[in-house]
Write a structure and sequence with these properties.
Elements: H1 3-13, H2 15-22, E1 26-32, E2 35-41, E3 51-57, E4 67-72, E5 77-78, E6 85-86, H3 88-93, H4 110-115, H5 119-122, H6 134-145, E7 152-153
Length: about 150
């Protein structure tokens, strides 16, 4: 097992991560190193899904931030634009008009951070750092999907 794989496994086994699983904030759906599929609970909205799945690439973790693409569990493919979360702020993060929707447009996502070198200074509390863990990343997504701004999915 590689060091990044061991780090991921330790974080998956941690009390913080497991407490969030027990509380219903998210659940691990599948793991095929370096990919991890996690379904994050979403607030009830008319016609909205109960959860949004993310297919995460954890290569280089935790030195490198994870990157996550919204995932369609039934199709086993990237989540279509029409099924992405809606709401003023959450739509920016789950957008498809940037990187073809293959990553989250947020300072905790590796792909977004690569293209935005000023984000760590602009958003220090939201930016991935090597001392963060999966609970931080998934917690940010869970907060968005349970905010008043979240309107469900089309």
């Amino acid at each position: 097992m590689t060091p990044d794989h061991r780090a991921v496994q330790a974080h998956l086994d941690s009390a913080r991560f497991q407490a969030a699983v027990a509380a219903g904030r998210w659940r691990v759906v599948d793991s095929d190193w370096p990919a991890l599929v996690v379904a994050v609970a979403a607030a009830p909205r008319p016609g909205g899904p109960e959860e949004i799945a993310l297919r995460m690439d954890l290569t280089g973790y935790p030195q490198q931030a994870p990157t996550a693409e919204p995932w369609d569990l039934e199709a086993g493919a990237r989540l279509a634009e029409r099924r992405r979360p809606r709401g003023e702020g959450v739509e920016v993060v789950f957008r498809t008009n940037w990187e073809h929707g293959r990553a989250l447009y947020a300072p905790f996502d590796r792909v977004a951070l690569t293209g935005h070198p000023d984000w760590p200074r602009q958003y220090p509390g939201d930016t991935w750092t090597p001392d963060r863990d999966l609970t931080f990343f998934l917690g940010k997504v869970h907060t968005m999907l349970n905010d008043d701004d979240y309107l469900g999915a089309a």
